[in-house]
Amino acid sequence: MGSISGDTQPHHVVLFPFMSKGHTIPLLHLARLLLQRRLTVTIFTTPANRPFISESLNDTTAFILDLPFSHNVTDLPAGIESTDKLPSMSMFPSFANATKLMQPDFERALQNLPRVNFMVSDGFLWWTLESASKFNIPRFVFYGMCYYSCCVSRAVAIDRLLFGLQSNDELITVPPFPWIKVTRNDFELPISEGQLKGRKFEFTKETVIAASLNSYGIIFNSFYELEPLFDDYWNRECTPKAWSVGPLCLAEPPKGRTEPHNKPKWVQWLDKKLDQGSSVLYVAFGSQAEISPAQLKEIATGLEESKVNFLWVIRKCESEISDGFEERVKDRGIVVREWVDQREILMHESVQGFISHCGWNSVLESICAGVPILAWPMMADQPLNARMVVEEIKVGLRVETCDGSVRGFVKWEGLEKMVKELMEGKKGKEVRKKSKELAEMAKKAIEEGGSSKCTLDLLINETCGKKT
Ligand code: UDP
């Protein structure tokens, strides 16, 4: 790690990712892009999250500072420093609220840093705006969402969603985009009145939005050509000014290993499938999704009955599938219970389809690899991302739920049918073609003269007075 005391890198950026993998990873990619432009980068985190960041950036000069995060908050087990360690996502508001305990240490640290030209901090760390203002640092907010989901969320009146609908599945039109129809089920309303009742949270949807509105800008992990209409809408109708600098996952290639013995066993397995001329379906639901044992069993049966080759990554806490499943499918399926390099898997030539929860990073990584998606959203912005994937940019199909709702239970028969459609059907062929076209556009966006590269250069120029 490099020192930040020298004068050779006078322009200095502070990054403060939220403590979850999906929010941290894209900002680590952004760190690389800033370092490539010879800016000094300091990343704030907590002791428990530091090893992941250090390991990811061990070949760079990024400077990492950790702040103690010892909360003693009702409803939150002690020692938890990352949302993927939360026993339940219902504890998320308590967790986000507790991050504010870091504010005094954060400000003491800022005082001792060389001049900071700008700060990029996560939307859930709303209080960092106050700290940035005290030190006259322009703050960019980062949510890791796409324009489509942000624009639709802003455009739909929350009161209408909460009180104006007969059922969770009643369709309503989104006024500025009349072709888009959404339901209450498309929205995660985790910080509802009910959940907040009786608790004193500074962290609320209102505080987060107010802090965003008063920030210098918002950074989108997207690229103009992917969603021009929504990028234009945001910059015409919403504040703060948005900057599209993605896909950030293209900032560095996955750490590919050429030596066969250095490759993880699942990559060796993919190599074998490629040698046999077989295609593989990748199945993964990100770092947060909670999948019930009953749903896991249906997934297993659906994959078994579909007869396709598959690589299924499951979280350790979900390790029980169904008796004898792995033995029965061992010739054409592999189940992985470890942290994988997802980009390495998606980029593998054998992978031709992805069952995804549609976390925005996963969607972008799939697009960049030219792999079509079978969309299975579960929470947060995922239902809207899934709509975007299937209805707007048409790089995916949707999994069939029992009750037809966007987040319902999926029976194995519905899964089997859609897996076959994605991997072998006509619709699968269409979305695969579209994915490959978008993969090319994504690459161009970050190349010399590309839209995202120019936007990041402009941002640096504006905040640092620096020509990159
Ligand atoms: N990821 C990974 N290996 C894993 C699980 C996840 O590399 O075993 C990465 C994935 O590539 C993505 C991020 O973790 O960059 C997950 O972000 P996403 O927005 O897709 O979903 P979330 O975990 O936030 O729900």
From TrEMBL:
**Record key words, sorted:** Glycosyltransferase, Transferase
User: Could you read off the lineage of the organism from its UniProt record?
Assistant: Eukaryota, Viridiplantae, Streptophyta, Embryophyta, Tracheophyta
InterPro entries (alphabetical): UDP_glucos_trans, UDP_glycos_trans_CS
Gene3D superfamilies for the chain: Glycogen Phosphorylase B
Against PANTHER family, the record matches this protein to: GLYCOSYLTRANSFERASE (PTHR48047:SF51)
Pfam family name, one: UDPGT
Q: Does the keyword Transferase apply?
A: yes
Task: Return the CDD domains for the record.
Answer: GT1_Gtf-like
Q: Which family does it belong to?
A: Belongs to the UDP-glycosyltransferase family.
The protein's superkingdom reads Eukaryota
Q: What is this protein called?
A: Glycosyltransferase
Q: Which GO terms describe its molecular function?
A: UDP-glucosyltransferase activity
Q: What is its EC number?
A: 2.4.1.-
Question: Which EC class, in a word?
Answer: transferase
Q: Which residues form the signal peptide?
A: none
